[in-house]
Amino acid sequence: MSELVLETEKLDKVYKLGGRQVRALSDVNLQVKKGDFISIMGPSGSGKTTLLNMLGCLDKPTYGKVILDSVNITKVPEKGLFKIRKHKVGFVFQTFNLMPYLNAIENVELPMEGTKKSGDEKRKRARELLKLVGLSEREEHRQHRLSAGEQQRVAIARALANNPAIILADEPTGNLDSKTGHEIIRLLGKLNIDQGTTIVMVTHDSLIASRAGRMLFLSDGKLQAKEKQGTHLLKRELTCPNCGREIQPDDTFCPRCGKKL
Amino acid sequence: MYVKVNHLGVLARAVRNVSRRKMRTFLVIIALGFSMAIMISIPAGIMANQEAAQSLTENFNSTISTMQEEITKSTTLIECRASSGQGMRSGMPSGMPTYGFGQEEVFINETVGDEIRTIEGVKDVVPFLQKSSEETTSETLSTPRGSFTISRPLYTITGVCLNSTFIDDYSILPTNITGRNLCEEDSGVLLMSLNLSEYYGVGVGGKVEIYGESFTVVGIYNSTGQGVTGARTVYMNITDAQTVTGQIGNVSRFDVYAENASYVDGIAEVIKAAYPDLYVTTYEDRLANLQNMQTMYTTTLNNAESTLSQTQTIATQEIIIAIVATSLIVLFVMLYTVRERTREIGILKAIGFSNLNVMSQFMLEGILISLMAGVVGIAIGSIGAPFLSSLLLPHISLFGGSSGRFRPSFGSANLGTTGSEAASVALNPELMLLAFGVAVLLGALGSLYPAWRASRTSPMEALRYE
After folding, report:
1. Distance (Å, rounded) from C-alpha A131 to C-alpha A191?
2. A160 found inside a domain
3. What ipTM was assigned to the predicted interfaces of this complex?
4. Contact at CB, B463 and A97, closer than 8 angstroms
5. Which residues constitute the domain of residue A246?
6. Is residue B151 within 8 Å of residue B286, measured between CB atoms?
7. Is A76 an 8 Å CB contact of chain B?
8. Which residue of A has its CA nearest to B19?
9. How do residues A146-191 score in pLDDT, each as one tens digit?
10. Is residue B36 within 8 Å of residue B326, measured between CB atoms?
11. Other CB atoms within 10 A of residue B192 CB
């Protein structure tokens, strides 16, 4: 059995809104193994982002526990959570959330501030990551000179900066057009396969969700019992669904039959 | 401005954040700079006033004692000045010509001296002619209320009767001479003050033109240390003085010496009765005048001290207001900045920045702005300290209000009385250093709460902020 990276037990989250209680999450039990690429799908207001916030130590559950990389983060005091966010979690947001006054490489270096890495090591690591996401030529570009897809790639590189145990992606394709969205999902899938990066992604887009390895469904704060195997991008890409011939992971069109993949 | 650095740290990020909001930073720096300038100008103004008051007190005390000595030595002297018959004249010791700035110069026929000499008990009558030069000089007085320029005659001609008895017995000429002093039979020569010789660039043996006539300088007297006023007087034979000034047969003063002190009052009464246009003073009058002067001075000094003390209170209040205003400016700007950058704070915290990291970044930005404001403040303060201090501090009238109404203008000569009320406001390095310290402190103080608030922001809430 693969090593568990993330586990939740009976996770509940209750908000107070205008004097009434709103149950955002209810009895969520989730297990994420090392190397998993999980998508959690659900309509707007189903509690996807709330769940992701719990998993990434941005919020605390009302009840239940979250165990991340063998640490029960619900018991970690508020002051200690930043270390977990820095070293164990990498966030990818829908709106990219890059620092507008920093260029691409500086944005990637940002989470490494305060780590033991020297300045040169940070720069080297940031360069490697930008290369990994295909932005070697864009190191010095600031946010306004990058396309939306490129910004999200920088955000992914930034999420990987401290080699976290898990990447949490909140609607990572939500602000992208369909083509760019698929490129980003392809990149996440590639990272999952090549680097063994564990990814939990929430989305309301079924097509995007289906590109993960495992699809979970969240409805009214409850994780549904049904679970689907996704058509993991890279697994799918090994053969063309149209002609059955072998294809390369980065191909958009089948080089044999010429049809869109 | 884009600060390119090899390894981005909190300082570089703070610099970039400050520089990317140029207009706001500029306005804040200007506003803070003015507060800083006020903070450094006011103490500078106060210090300048204190120094001016202290210097005046010292000068006055020294002059009073010199005058007292002169008066004490001249118990048998009766001074008779040509007078228009209006107003009081301060009593001057023997041999000390006066220049009443702004007063009409009045003359009397020298034959009056011969008549006075016939009065019983009169030993000698020494005539003097004093006349201002036609040349004038402009001088700038810098006071706590600002600078203004006044025009004064360049020098005073003092014509002295060069009788060897008078020279020997009555100290009618200055001492401390380079070259030689005037002596009997001298004509076409003169004695001038050191500052005047420097002004003309002539030494002993040189020639100067007085009222269009050429004179040889035979001696130069040192005019420093002879009272509050800088002396600029030209001494010459009275006949030469009468000729060049066009006052032939006229004098402006007689020093009448009695055989002994018992005759003084009688002689004074006779002169007063015979010549009502002469302003007559005896030893007692001069002593009384001196005492009046001392009393007046003490009163005005007390008033000045009281004003100074009030000024210090006002200054303290103004400094406190400036400090509070500065802190509030930093506070509001940083609060606004924190609010505006809520989402950024959320991102920083989501990627693993601690509360301390976030707090230090915002504090550093506040301190950076304040430091720049400190530099601007010093620049504004250096240029505008006199203006700012005069604008913010009440007018300190050290000697009875308007300049010149009472000016202790006694001494061997009295041109160039600049600076009797001058308080030159200058910033010293300690004040500038203090301004920097205060700038850093206020920057830290003003950004402390906003930075703390930023650090306490929930990352989840912050990320939701639009």
Report:
1. 12
2. yes
3. 0.86
4. yes
5. 231-261
6. no
7. no
8. A101
9. 999 999 999 999 999 999 999 999 999 999 998 899 889 989 988 8
10. yes
11. 30
